[in-house]
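Notes, p. 3: input format for complexes.
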Amino acid sequence: MGKNTKKQWDLVVIGAGASGMMAAITAARANKKVCIIEKLDKAGKKLLATGNGKCNYTNAVMHTDCFHGEKDFISFVLKQFSTEDCLDFFHSIGIYPKNKNGYYYPNSEQAASVVNALLYELERLEVKICYETVIKDIVPFENEVCMETNKGNIYGQHVIIATGLLAAPKLGSDGSLFDVIKSLGHRFKPILPALCGFYCKGMKFKQISGVRAQGSVGAYIDGEKYAEDTGEIQFTDYGLSGIPVFQISHYLSKGLYEKRKVEIKVNLLPDFDKKQLVEELDYRCRIGASMPVNTLLNGLVNQKLADMIFDKAGVETDLYQSCLSESQLLKIAGLLQDITVTVTNYRDYEFAQVCTGGIPLMDVDYHTLASKLVPNIQFTGEILDVDGICGGYNLHFAWATGYIAGRSI
Ligand SMILES: Cc1cc2nc3c(=O)[nH]c(=O)nc-3n(C[C@H](O)[C@H](O)[C@H](O)COP(=O)(O)OP(=O)(O)OC[C@H]3O[C@@H](n4cnc5c(N)ncnc54)[C@H](O)[C@@H]3O)c2cc1C
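Output follows (409 residues plus flavin-adenine dinucleotide):
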């Protein structure tokens, strides 16, 4: 091609992350000429970090309830690209699935194998990836779109924006295209960190930092329960984290953003009913009558958590257990199943796996993910106003929307 010849791609994808690579492969498999513009020096950097480096890429249970966002839209997306479709696609590029309680990982248990498989396929399909390319402006014309970059202009008949939101910005999704997107007339719903830990007060967190314990957590906004989840809670020096906290994080973040009263109720023994727990404490008190109070919960809950409970209950731990009154026992039982902490803030984007918010779904066409404001531009992946719970749902949404947009070209 001569120096001054203008090359127009059928499709230019912005962002070589999960949804961008899927969109590019889908369009290229239909013989479209595709170019990807990536800001970083490598593709799929965030993908490498997913699932603790193992990449939980989809889930056997695929339901609209696993996502936050417009249910009709999510339902449409999941019908176009199901778990089976996802497994088939990845098998077609060499990724053999490993099913762990419904959570799918590559059999190699290496996220790098997923990134490599996508890159091999992109190479086979002759998709060009322009790395370290910074977009300064996007200028739409009637039949094409011009991307003005630090490496010259790139022209596409269609453009897919797959740049994510702000979660884990060091891995690429840093909002660097937001101003350009806004200059096209698009608005964003408030972007907040989700699938993250939260700063809390109401426990002596420094003393229990590092403890991991099974339990359930409930999200309460202005006293009303919005969600609950059970699993391994992580007690940290700043507050609470861990998968069950991630699962209720959407509501906590929104409540904080709306400046409402946000609380987490922790139940350290969700498998006990109240009566059973009181009987258990009564029994322990009888057999341990001559033992100090601080041994009462030994073998029932983590000792650091037990000490925290005694402290909150206001009982003296060096007294004999026989000295505990019935009301003190009831208080301990109550705290074991209900400690309320106040949530003061979310952790920074750096520590979030996803974000809530993004491009409002009413601004895109459900069937093609095309912008209703700018011709020939589409949005895929996390930049859309949908976020999933933990379990492979966010990647599934990225693959599915990448597939839908790529197919529509
Ligand atoms: C630590 C961690 C673990 C996770 N684990 C899981 C998991 O196991 N399962 C799961 O389902 N989800 C997981 N997620 C969430 C999941 O990774 C994301 O939801 C998903 O990657 C979003 O895909 P995307 O294509 O929309 O954006 P991304 O994957 O973030 O890709 C965006 C791409 O766009 C590029 N980009 C950004 N701005 C520009 C620009 N201006 N110009 C050019 N390129 C740009 C970025 O460099 C990046 O390559 C995890 C996230 C994190 C941070």
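The first strand starts at residue 8 and ends at 14.
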